[in-house]
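Lay summary

Proteins are chains of building blocks that fold into shapes. Our project writes down both the chain and a compact code for its shape. Here are two examples, one after the other.
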Amino acid sequence: MVSTISPVVYRNSNLGHNGWLVAAMTYTLGSVMGGILIGAFLGSVGLLLTVPLDAHRNLFPFFIGLLAIAYAMHELRLVSLPYPQRQRQVPDHWRHRFHPYITAGLFGLLLSTGFITFIPTATYYILVLAVILHGAPFTSIFIFAIYGITRALLFLPFSWQNNAPGRVERLTYYMDLTKPIIRQVNGFALATAGAYLIRVYL
């Protein structure tokens, strides 16, 4: 996405000097909308599933805590656990088929839904499970809207820096180098959250 929505891409286009900024804002809007849609879906599923399990609701934090610790070990590469995802990102042909602003919005919408694209860390699954077991659609919508905003806000400063072709390649290279660190951070965060939830239950 950084290589698609950045000043270097829009500099010589007929979309104006700030065309990349409009595309970035459209991407942000799409990301938030995708978060709202997936949040509404997960919250509604959770509402239907947790009604028959309401008598066991006090076990939910303990269950989530155990899974969080398990996937913390997965993130830290101590064990290997199921990690279902689609090994693809956004369709590349959209860049040629649609207007750049529409493409940016569709990219944001698709990426923020999570399940139908590559998922970088297992923390996403714990968040999904938590909102399903919570069974509150409006809370789920709020959480995943924040998730969509966060994805976009992290993207904006990176895209702004890419005003020359060489910077795009360098940034992509540096982002690849940080992936192991991100997994380590997520692993420790999951372990901390899991320990807290188990302690609360006990």
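And here is the second example, written the same way.
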Amino acid sequence: MRRVSLELQALLELWLLPLAVALLPYAAGIALARVLSRTLPMYRRAAEAGAARWHEVVAQADESDFRARFRFAQLVDHADLFWSLTRSRTFLRARLAAPRFDVPTGRPLVVLSFHYGQGLWLMDALASQGHRVRFVSIRLDRAEAASTLAYAYARLRIAAVGRLSGVPPIFTGGARRTIGDALAAGVGVYGLVDVPIPESAGAQARANASLLGHPVLLPTGLLESAAGAGASALIVTSHAMPDGSRVVETQAFERVEDVDIAALAGALGNRLAAAPANWHFWHLWPAFAGRAGAVR
């Protein structure tokens, strides 16, 4: 019965509801997403746990509003896949309205981002401005997926990432060498840096950054892999407002060596302070905790 329940949940939350939103005219789809987010208990476990963690960390009280906003962010993020499959590049670019990315041309680019808001369309925006970037992804494993339909959704999404960016993703497991090879060939890389360190590696590690005033441990592998490659860097995120307009926030660096993990944590912290429900990983907050005493 649990297996059936997980499949039905994935069918509803990853396929049917996002597809229904995406098949409507854009404004109507966004309006439907708002209604569904306020009335259906979608993404229940992540929403409930995320609201509780958010309340603990920032001492805010209105968890009900947080859950609705969190569900909206999740639903739009999933609908973005189906918009990308059913609409033109012109449609995506008009809705995203990304600014000109202020990074040097003729050099590889390291794009740094977070599990925040809706980032899929940024792959096309970067490609449209001449920045080919290979997205760094975990290697998909059917045995670790919650359900067959969740695995199928993940496969479809990573395929869309490759199509929108114009270059294949890089999968973890030997990624450092591949990242170095890509940058040496003049191809950029795009990584999400708010990933918990595996317990086996991070249990005894001290914090390397501060997030919302709390010591945290964030991975530095992408920064280390890109050092010395002559690359520039761009911190970028996008998130949808309740009316469907998109906010694209960027910070450019002449050299990737000018970015450190503290700066990335600060960029994420600013976003969490301004629009906390857009972060997908609130429910994983304990996994980011590092031993205090070494934050720089």
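What can we say about the second shape? Residues 223 and 260 are 8 Å apart (CA to CA).
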